[in-house]
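Case study 2.
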Amino acid sequence: MGLSDLISKTPNLEILRRSLERQRVGHAYLFTGRDRTAMVSASRTFAKALNCIEHKSKDAEADCCNQCHSCERIQADRHSDVHWVRPESKTRVIKIQEIRQLTARLQLKSNDARCKVGIIVDADRMPPQSANAFLKTLEEPPSNSLMILLSTQPDQLLDTIQSRCLHLHFHSDEASVMRREHQAWLETFAQQASVSDTGMLGRYKVMDILLTQLAQARQSIEEDLKARSIEAFPKEADPEIMKKRDDELKASIESEYRRQRGAILTSLEWWFRDTWLIAMNAEARFLTFPDLQKNSHQLADRLDAQYLRANIQVIETLQRVLNTNAQEALALEVNLLKLHL
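Prediction:
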């Protein structure tokens, strides 16, 4: 994917290409919106366009080729001059040590990139100490560097940080994002949930579908992050460094899993909302998952609206319980068995 593809979907990103063409790229950008995946993709593409080997001449299009050595390494998150920071602790905050490490890396001379890039995902997860440390970096930005902050909750960022960044908002349809990422497994869930109540066995069958989806998400996260971590460290690295790497990897896996688990449960909550809307005779255009209407109608025809609304509250409660570091397996079983099916 190149800048042209992104601009076709989010026209206000044209400013990025103009900045490249005029060679007047800012030192810090703040990407905001509901679709975190789109913002991550845009950050990676912008980093590629800044450092693309094939498109470095003045006459070339301000974009990336996606084929040169630089583009390939950035796409695979293996470029030594492009650094990512994500919430990695169990509390999903960005620690001050991570900000200091990012600053130190940006201060170093680049290996082969024209512009060093630091990307902070979920920048609103910086507590005051981390935010103030990053503010100092914004006030005195390292030479030949670019910082990109991604946030779904920009109101949680310090005003002084926001004022020092060029703000670009990603307009997105939250419903379309959920359909793209979750409709496949939700279809299986909805089919089972719409079956006439078969008692406790039926509830466990429904719960198993969700547990399988969560397990697959964790496995995918582990495989992806472990592969990146192994590539970043030589086999002969110092044992203490390897232990630190393993600890950071474990925290990163847990943090990303919690984020994806929240997204999975949110999509389930919105499907239950569809069933409630159908029971309230709402128009189809208000449904988040219109392609699942058949099964949604089956459940809505069988249950009163008050029970369908209660299902929404069950998922909301489950989300709150899981955010308290409760034992996941027990919390899932206790709450999901309360669903009305």
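The chain is about 60% helix and 10% strand.
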